[in-house]
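Researcher: Here's the sequence for the chain we discussed earlier.
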Amino acid sequence: LDVEMAAYNGHLNATAAMFSLVPHYEFKKNRWNLDLGLNISACVRPDPSGKNFSESGQYVYPAVSVEYEALRNALFLYAVADGGNNLGTYSSMIRNNRYFDMSYAGPDAQLLDNSVKRVDFALGFKGRVAEGLSYDVKGGYRDYGSAALDAVYADVPGVAYCPLRSLYAGVDVIWKSESLCASADVTYDNFIGFNMSSPAIIPAALS
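Model: Thanks. This is the structure I predict for it:
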């Protein structure tokens, strides 16, 4: 059981707690590795009338992975489906944007809320091409019921929480030796169904 809490007074005057439980079943046989589970998550607010942390999300999310070893110790094929709630604390917002401050709440908008990832489904393959050099190639679909995005309110920067869906593809490369570890990754997102009338700014397609 994981518990995360946030409590603020003064201008924010908000308190919330996120409870998460992930029961799962693991099964390994020959070249197959299965991990079947559910992410049961709930956000609790002592004062439900407050503006911040109003997004409760859903209560059950997938937590499933299936892996097949196509080539012994060299190539793995996999499928993954997961999701969950993320408590959008003030400190986490600053980590993502060092310019974030109290002014980022737009007119009648909330400053802090929960990000809700309904589902993230991916198919991919990973493995090694040489001693110390490994890779991971995947593509999939993400659906956020609520995502924290940069926004503009009357030429003033802010934050907006809105749905976000995308088809994506990405590559990770990792080099490890006894004295050095280096990695690089790139992801391309094709955002679909984005509400262009929203004050939110659509994220960069390539990251």
